[in-house]
C-alpha cells in the first residue's frame, strides 16, 4: 500500500535496503561523530558532474563513507555534492541518497561550479565544430537550440491566460531565447514565430533554463478570458484501443481521507470531507464484486468512495495480466464505487518490473482498464495511477526509476489523457506552506512544493485533464517520538502546521480550477515504524483532530 521507494522527493519513503525500499531524503544520521556521510542505498552513481547527463565514474555500494567537499550551483537541480571516498576517488553524488552526519549542513558547503557536459563524439563525416555550443557561447540575441518533447500550446505570453497561436507538435525544433522570472515558461522562436512554451514541454540542447535571460515580452494579443486546453493526443501504441463512451466522471471539487478503520466518520464529516479512499490489491482470477459491502458502507455514511487498485510489479510481464486486471476493475466498477485509480507509482521498480518501466506500456493498461470500467459503469471516474514524485532518474537510471515529469510527458505522448478523467498525483513531502513556491531548505526541486506539483502535472497534458491528489499529507512526530532516519526532514513540523497546511492546500486547490480531488493521507493509521503512517494521521494519538477543525473552518 505504501510504495515510497524512490519517491525520493516524496514523503513516506522507505529505507533503501537491498531491494531499494528506501529513503530518498536521507537526512542527517543520529550519530554525532564519524564520516560526513555514508551511502544510503545499494548502488549510487558517482558522476563527473551534478546531473544524470554526466558520465558515471564509479558505483558506490551501501555504507561507503564519504567526505563532502562542495555543493553544486544549479537551481532546481536537487542538491548534488562533490564528495571524496576513502580510496580518494572524487565525484558528484545526489545528496538525497546519503545518510549525512548530524550537525553537518549541506547548504553551507562551498559552491563548486558544474563542469561542462562532455560533447558527444561527432560523426566521422562531420567536423567537430558542428557540435552545439554551450549556453554561454551563444551571441546575444540568439539562443539555445531546443526541441519540444510533447504536443504543447505556443502562447503569446508566459501563462495559460495568454492567447495560443496553436499546438506545436512533439519533436519541433525551437530556439530558446529567454525565460520568465520563475523559470517555468520559456520564450522561444518556433517556425519563425516568437512565443512562450511551458518549461516541461521543451528540452534545451545544452545548459539550463537559468542560463537564459529574463524577459517579459508579450508577442501578440491580450490576455484571453479562458485558455483552451490541448486536445488529448490520439494513442500511439498499436495495442491501445479507442476509448468507449463515458459518463461525466468527476464534477466539482471534493476532498476526503484515506482510512484504515473508517471508525470516525463523524470527525470526517466535521472536517467537510465527502470522499473516503481504500486501496485494494489485484491478484489474477479474483472477482471484483467483493468490495460491494465496503461501497455500501461508505455510501450509507454519506461518502463517495475511491478505490486505488494496485497489482504485482512482476505481473505486468505475464501474458494476459493486463486483460485480467481490466476484467477485475470492470467488475469492481459494476459494484458502484465513485472512482477507481489505476495502479500506483508505476514510475519506480518497487511498483513496476525493473527494466520495463514505460509510460506507453502503462497507457495500454490504462486504456484497457478505462474501457472495462466505462463499459460496466460509465459514471465511475477513472484516475491515472499517481506517480512517485522523484528526481532520481539520473542517480539510478531509467531501468529503475523515471522522473515523474519525464514519465508524464511519455504518458501524454502515448495518448493517456483519452483514458482518464483525472491525473493522479501524490504529495507527501512538504515542510513549507502550500502557498510557498521556493525556500525549502532541501532545495527548490518542483516536487517539494504544492504548486510545483499542481502545475507540472496539469500542464503535462496541456490542461486537458484536472489533477486528483490521491495522497496528500504532512508528517509530524508530535506526540509520537522521533521520526525514523528517512523522515528526519519532517522533524520540525508541528501538528498545528499540519492542520493549517492541509486546510490551506484544500483552499488553494478548490479555487485553482486545476484540481478536482484531494485525498488526505491519512485519517486514522496508528503504526509508527520505518514508514511512520501515524505521523501523517490527522487523528492524533490523543484522539484529537486539529486538522479536522482547520478544515471545518473553510467548509
Mean of the pLDDT scores? 83
Structural class: alpha/beta
For CATH, the homologous superfamily of the domain at 254-552 is named as: Glycosidases
General shape: globular
The name of the CATH architecture of the domain at 254-552 is Alpha-Beta Barrel
How are strands sequenced across the largest beta sheet? Answer: 19-18-17-16-15-22-21-20
Portion in strands: 15-25%
Main β-sheet description: 8 strands, parallel
| Unreliable residue stretches | 1-32, 120-141, 221-231, 233-238
Provide the CATH top-level class of the domain at 254-552: Alpha Beta
- The N- to C-terminal Cα distance equals 30 Å
Q: What is the CATH topology descriptor of the domain at 254-552?
A: TIM Barrel
Radius of gyration: 23 Å
Q: Would you report the number of β strands? A: 22
Helix content bin: 10-25%
**What is the number of helical segments per DSSP (H or I, 4+ residues)?**
10
Amino acid at each position: 500500500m505504501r510504495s515510497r521507494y524512490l519517491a525520493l522527493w516524496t514523503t513516506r519513503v522507505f529505507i533503501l535496503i537491498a531491494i531499494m525500499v528506501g529513503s530518498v531524503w536521507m537526512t542527517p544520521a543520529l550519530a554525532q561523530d564519524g564520516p560526513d556521510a555514508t551511502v544510503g542505498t545499494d548502488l549510487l552513481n558517482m558522476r563527473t558532474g551534478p546531473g544524470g547527463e554526466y558520465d558515471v565514474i564509479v558505483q558506490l555500494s551501501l555504507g561507503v563513507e564519504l567526505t563532502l567537499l562542495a555543493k553544486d550551483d544549479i537551481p532546481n537541480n536537487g542538491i548534488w555534492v562533490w564528495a571524496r571516498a576513502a580510496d580518494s576517488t572524487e565525484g558528484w553524488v545526489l545528496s538525497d541518497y546519503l545518510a549525512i552526519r548530524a550537525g553537518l549542513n549541506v547548504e553551507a558547503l562551498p559552491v563548486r561550479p558544474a563542469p561542462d557536459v562532455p560533447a558527444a563524439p561527432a560523426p566521422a563525416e562531420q567536423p567537430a565544430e558542428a557540435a552545439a555550443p554551450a549556453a554561454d557561447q551563444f551571441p546575444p540575441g540568439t539562443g539555445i537550440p531546443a526541441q519540444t518533447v510533447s504536443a504543447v500550446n505556443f502562447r503569446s505570453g508566459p501563462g495559460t491566460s495568454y492567447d495560443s497561436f496553436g499546438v506545436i507538435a512533439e519533436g519541433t525544433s525551437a530556439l530558446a531565447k529567454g525565460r520568465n522570472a520563475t523559470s517555468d515558461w520559456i520564450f522561444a522562436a518556433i517556425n519563425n514565430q516568437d512565443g512562450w512554451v511551458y518549461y516541461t514541454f521543451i528540452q534545451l540542447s545544452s545548459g539550463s533554463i537559468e542560463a537564459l535571460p529574463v524577459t517579459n515580452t508579450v508577442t501578440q494579443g491580450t490576455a484571453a478570458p479562458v485558455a483552451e486546453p490541448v486536445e488529448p493526443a490520439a494513442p500511439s501504441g498499436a495495442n491501445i484501443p479507442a476509448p468507449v463512451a463515458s459518463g461525466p466522471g468527476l464534477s466539482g471539487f471534493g476532498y476526503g481521507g484515506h482510512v484504515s478503520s473508517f471508525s470516525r466518520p463523524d470527525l470526517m464529516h466535521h472536517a467537510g470531507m465527502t470522499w473516503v479512499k481504500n486501496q485494494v490489491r489485484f491478484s489474477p482470477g479474483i472477482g471484483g464484486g467483493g468490495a460491494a459491502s465496503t461501497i455500501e458502507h461508505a455510501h450509507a455514511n454519506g461518502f463517495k468512495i475511491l478505490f486505488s487498485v494496485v497489482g504485482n510489479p512482476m505481473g505486468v510481464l505475464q501474458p494476459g495480466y493486463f486483460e485480467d486486471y481490466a476484467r477485475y476493475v470492470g467488475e469492481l466498477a459494476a459494484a458502484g464505487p465513485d472512482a477507481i485509480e489505476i495502479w500506483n507509482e508505476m514510475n519506480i521498480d518497487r511498483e513496476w518490473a525493473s527494466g520495463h518501466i514505460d509510460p506507453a506500456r502503462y497507457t495500454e493498461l490504462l486504456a484497457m482498464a478505462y474501457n472495462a470500467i466505462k463499459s460496466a459503469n460509465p459514471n465511475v471516474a477513472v484516475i491515472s495511477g499517481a506517480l512517485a514524485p522523484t528526481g532520481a532518474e539520473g542517480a539510478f537510471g531509467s531501468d529503475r526509476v523515471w522522473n515523474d515529469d519525464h514519465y508524464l510527458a511519455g504518458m501524454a505522448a502515448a495518448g493517456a489523457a483519452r483514458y482518464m478523467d483525472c491525473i493522479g498525483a501524490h504529495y507527501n513531502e512538504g515542510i513549507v506552506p502550500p502557498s510557498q513556491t521556493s525556500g525549502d531548505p532541501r532545495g527548490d526541486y518542483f516536487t517539494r512544493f504544492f504548486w510545483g506539483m499542481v502545475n507540472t502535472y496539469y500542464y503535462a497534458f496541456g490542461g486537458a485533464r484536472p489533477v486528483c491528489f490521491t495522497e496528500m499529507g504532512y508528517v509530524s512526530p508530535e506526540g509520537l517520538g522521533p521520526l525514523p532516519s528517512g523522515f528526519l526532514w519532517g522533524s520540525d513540523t508541528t501538528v498545528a502546521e499540519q492542520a493549517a497546511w492541509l486546510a490551506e492546500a484544500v483552499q488553494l486547490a478548490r479555487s485553482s480550477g486545476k484540481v478536482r480531488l484531494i485525498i488526505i493521507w491519512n485519517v486514522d493509521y496508528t503504526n509508527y515504524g520505518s514508514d511512520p503512517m501515524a505521523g501523517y494521521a490527522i487523528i492524533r494519538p490523543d484522539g484529537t483532530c486539529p486538522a479536522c477543525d482547520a478544515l471545518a473552518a473553510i467548509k
